[in-house]
Amino acid sequence: MPDKCPVCSEDFVRESGFYWGAMMVSHAVTTLLAVIVHLIVFQYYGWDIAPNVIAIITVILVLFPIVFRNSRAIWINIFVNYNPSFQKKNKDV
Q: What are phi and psi of 41, to 5 degrees?
């Protein structure tokens, strides 16, 4: 993630510990993914532990980069309003 937004110069480097909340968002999304994968695998294999664990770990590892970046984006968007019609006044900023 860059230090500043290239369009509006919003500072993405907040105070120390700001993105700890993103870990909670990431945890919630990962838990939701695990439940969904479990329900899908359960339909085919029942309560067998090996297929469930293998499927959940595989999906979480594959989707980790996406979940990680989106969790940070979700967290910062809770505190910073997005303005799609923003036009940079000074290009040197």
A: -65, -35
The encoded tokens of residue 17 equal 């510990």
Domain ranges of the chain: 20-74
93 confidence band (pLDDT: 50, 70, 90): very low
The DSSP annotation for 53-75 comes to HHHHHHHHHHHHHHHHHHHHHHH
| Dihedral angle of Cα 73, 75, 78, 82, to the nearest 10 degrees | -20
Tens of pLDDT, residue by residue over 57-91, are 999 999 999 999 999 889 988 888 877 777 666 55
Using DSSP's 3-state secondary structure scheme, residue 88 falls into coil
> Who contacts 44 (Cβ-Cβ below 8 Å, separation ≥6)?
51
Three-state DSSP class for 89? coil
